[in-house]
Amino acid sequence: MTTETQARQLEQVIYTKKDGVATIVMNNPRTLNALSRIMNDEMQWAFLDAENDPDIRAIIVSGAGERAFSSGADVTMMAEGQDRAAADRDAAARAGRVVDVPKPGSGSPLPQWIWRNIEKPIVAAVNGVCAGMGGVTALAADIRIMSSTARFAHVYERRGMVCSGETWFLPRYMGLGNAMYHILMADDTGPDEALRVGLVSKVVEPDKLMEEALAIAEHLRDGPQVATRWTKKVIRFGIWHNFFETMDLVGIARQLAGPSGENREGARSFVEKRKPAFYTR
């Protein structure tokens, strides 16, 4: 399959599809690829397009340029919204009106959306600073690799904000003590430590990052697609369920995945001493 032209014109995302792999690149270098409302909407569209395209079997997500994967949510936009809300509250108080208290939202909306909607394997190529919601978007990927010049920046304490999705991901990846230290001290995680604690699977030189990401994505592309989807479901289920409940789901998953024929091809290739051919292009 050759590169396809997308059906929608995108302003802040570069989206390409080639040979069974979709690549989604956050593209707003002026703000270090900060996630604006436009970018968030376009990211969701691109991910969903890749998920629904039967020719796509793996997804890469990265940031444009060498400086940033993503600096997080668009702080300028957030500050303007907070200023408007504060001004509205002050005006209401001066007029003697009852001030409505806004309902609480939910943290890390894009990573939440990705976990709910995308079953195909995702590779994050972290090419520069990776902070806030941008960092959690990388953490929501299934496999992460990192440039030797990149870093995860834990910025919430510097902004006077309650930390978001990192509160869930980092204790699981780094351990509770390391997560507490990095979040509360607003201490960045560089490539050496990210590799040591399992935050990323590989660290490569900047000029090799996308090459390595593509090699991983192609490996996933050529693997058993139904089994991979169910494996993702089981792993995520197991994070908050006990061993016995998780093994029950494994049994269900194996039964449901059986009709795909992937297991039969895997067994045949072992007997015939060849590489399995789950899918042909």
How would you describe this structure to a colleague?
This protein is globular. It has a 6-stranded mixed β-sheet, with helices on both faces. The protein has a 3-stranded parallel β-sheet with strand order 4-6-8. Helix 3 (109-117) runs parallel beside helix 4 (132-139). The longest helix is centred in the first third of the chain and has 20 residues, at 75-94. Helix content is 48%, strand content 14%. The chain is built from 12 helices and 9 strands. Mean pLDDT is 87; it is low at 78-83. The protein has helices at 37-52, 75-94, 109-117, 132-139, 156-159, 166-174, 176-184, 191-197, 209-221, 225-239, 243-257, 262-271; strands at 13-18, 21-26, 58-63, 68-70, 122-126, 129-131, 143-147, 151-153, 202-204. The chain has 2 domains: 13-75 and 105-221, 2-enoyl-CoA Hydratase, Chain A, domain 1 (Alpha-Beta Complex), CATH 3.90.226.10; 225-271. It is an alpha/beta fold and 281 residues long.
Strand order of the largest sheet: 1-2-3-5-7-9
Whole-angstrom Rg: 21 Å
Tally of domains? 2
CATH topology of the largest domain: 2-enoyl-CoA Hydratase, Chain A, domain 1
Q: How are helices and strands ordered from N to C?
A: EEHEEHHEEHEEHHHHEHHHH
CATH class annotation of the largest domain: Alpha Beta
CATH superfamily of the largest domain: 2-enoyl-CoA Hydratase, Chain A, domain 1
Contiguous low-pLDDT stretches (5 residues minimum) are: 78-83
